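User:
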Amino acid sequence: MRTYLDFEKPVAELEAKLEELRAEAAAGNGSADEIARLEAKAAQTLRDLYANLTPWQKTLVARHPNRPHFSDYVARLFTDFTPLAGDRKFGEDAAIQGGFARFRGMSVCVLGHEKGSTTEARIKHNFGMARPEGYRKAVRLMELADRFDIPVLSLVDTAGAYPGIGAEERGQAEAIARSTEACLALGVPNVSVIIGEGGSGGAIAIATANVVLMLEHAIYSVISPEGAASILWRDTSKAQEAATSMKITAQDLMRFGVVDELVPEPAGGAHRNPEVAIAATGDALAVALEGLKGLAREEIRARRQRKFLAIGRNL
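Assistant: Predicted structure:
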């Protein structure tokens, strides 16, 4: 059963009517012309809605529970995926998954946040909010990839790093900083994709890459709109206003030079047609990797450094 967001109500009504007409047609009472007309109207309404989304609506789309997750991308884009677990210091954190695989014939290290698709999986993966051991695992994987000259691909989808007491006691801030440092130190190409939510340090810890891609309706911010509203106005009901002011959309971030390329989503968002969204992401990853092919290790580091030092300088 399809899950509709609040602003999708016009589409929901049209598609409900379509289901009725199709049921009537199956019983021999429906009109094929009427069904075709309504299908066209529903499709156009959906395109019009998604062509004019507000930043808050994009936030809702980025958080949609049916949006494809890390495991979906791995299953469709990579072969011979061999997951690795544990940080060799404390334990395993299921919020960040990673390992080695082949991407279009090339050996790669792939890691990213996994939110989970069912209630049980979401609890297991802590809704994609990593603890220190998750970021230390990411460092371990990146350093292993660097040692064997294997490119690193990261898929970002998190509301932020887990803020619990245990995580803070085990050095959450230090783990995030070390992971960011590991990204910057890589002598191999690294490409990151913001596939849903890119929340705060929890995202940048694995997104400090040579090339940062971002899905069309994803968001990337230093804090959630609700968090910003609670700090600035002490009123979370102002989250929509905060989302607009914070410039968290892919289009805004492209304009500011924070991300390098937008990956188009199918009409209605990635959750409506995950296979198309994943295929487009795979194509964008391939192009990004090809552009970094053959570069010397020092040049790869220097380009990455210049990219991040330039952010905000030429606005």
